[in-house]
Every structure is written in structure tokens, then in C-alpha cells.
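User: Here's a chain of 280 residues. Predict its fold as C-alpha cells.
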Amino acid sequence: MQIVNTVSELRNAVRAWRSAGQSVALVPTMGNLHAGHLALVNEAKEKAERVVVSIFVNPTQFGVGEDFETYPRTEREDHEKLNAFGTDLLFQPAVSEVYASDAKTLVSVTGLSEWYCGASRPGHFGGVATVVCKLFNMVQPDVALFGLKDFQQLTVIRTMVRDLNIPVEIVGVETVREASGLAMSSRNSYLTAEEKAVAEKLYQCLCVARDAVLAGQQSYEEIERRALLFLQDSGFQPDYFSVCRMSDLKKAGADDVALVLLTAARLGKTRLIDNVCFSR
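Assistant: Prediction complete.
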């Protein structure tokens, strides 16, 4: 596996692949890699002949008081995992390589970026959209892969690609879960053993709500209310629980078929997100 830290090194490597007629996949990450990330790498290998993984803890998507400084960084372990999975190139730039000191440009996907997690984390999705757009410009991949766990993020990126005519295929990959159902996340390492036993109830709550939607015996508002109450009674500080249209994340109506349940809740010091997609 080749490891590069500069855009010029990255572009030289990609240029050589392109000259050989090879396709390129990109897996953007912030490191501290787990089985969910590696599932993206595996899928990338199926989609393209060469795989680039980026590791970059992006400061612009962290708000004031969030965990940018303490976000888990496991560089040596990440390198070993990516090398074992046959990654062709790891792009691991410094902040100064990604952002000019006087950078003035921000990519903003309005509407989508202000709802749900965007309401709780102002500016977060602007930081996400900006860094992903920059990575697309740096790598110019044929395909990029993202986990479905961050469904709002995935929707923001898909919308940005459509609106800006960026020539990259966006592929969402199914959430990888622990045996308990808890969605794998780098921030799960913040949970104590006691909190982890509670955390699995987040996915349980989503499954119960999904079954209630499919049964059609309660209004969406009642399903949301019961889910929030369950989470609160279980020890979470719920942020939101919403029954949404999968296409644009607006509140689902009676005629909508493809749905996604979105939720976020804090457990101790850890903020957890999860979702369930289905059709009725």
C-alpha cells in the first residue's frame, strides 16, 4: 500500500492509473477504522480496479465544544488494516494540505443541512460537503463509497454531486452492526460497558417503530412520540426521531412508500445516530 500526504503525490499516482486505463474508487474516512469502514473498502474493490482511502479528521465539521481534539486517532492500526485489505493508496494529508490558511469557499447544501443532525450541529454538513467536494476534486474518482449509517450525510453528498454535476457515482453501503445490533461507529469507544448495554436499545427502538409503520395502526406522529419516550425512559437524551421520505428526508406522508427512520440520541458523553430504511 502506498501512503501519500500531499495532493501532488496523490494526483501523480492516480494519473498513472488513469494512463493504464484503470478505474478508481474513493473511500473517505476520519480513521479509527472498524469493520464498517473495511466493508466500504471491500465494496470499493468490487467497483473499481484501484482503491484510494483517505484518512482526515476534518476540523470544519466539528462545532465549538465538540470532540475534534479528542477524536480517536489510531494511525498504526489503521495502516495495518488497510494494508491487509489490499488498499492501493492511503491519502493522509495534514490540515494545511487540505485548507489554505485564508480559505474563503464553503460548499453548502441548503435545507438538508439544517435538519435533524444539522439543527443540533450547526455548520456540520457544510464542513462535510466542503471536504468531500475537495476530496472529489483531488482524487477525481469514478465511484465513492459511504456508509448508510450516516444517512443524512449520504443524502447531502448525493444532492451536492447532482447539483454540481460532479462526475462520480455515489454508493451507499449497508450499516455494519455489532451482535447486539448497535451500529459500528468510531465514537462507540467513548461508551462505558454499562452504556454499551443501553446503546443497543437505539436500534431496537428503530425496529419497533418500523414494525409499527408497517402495521399501519398508528400515526407517524404517535410512532415518533412513543419512540422518543422509550429512548428517554431507557436512559438516552433523545435529539430527534423522525419518519422521513427516503428521497429527500422530508417528513413522510401517507402516500410515501420508500421511508427512512432517522434518530440521534446522547448517552452519557456520546452522541449516537442510526437509521432504518424500508418500503411499505
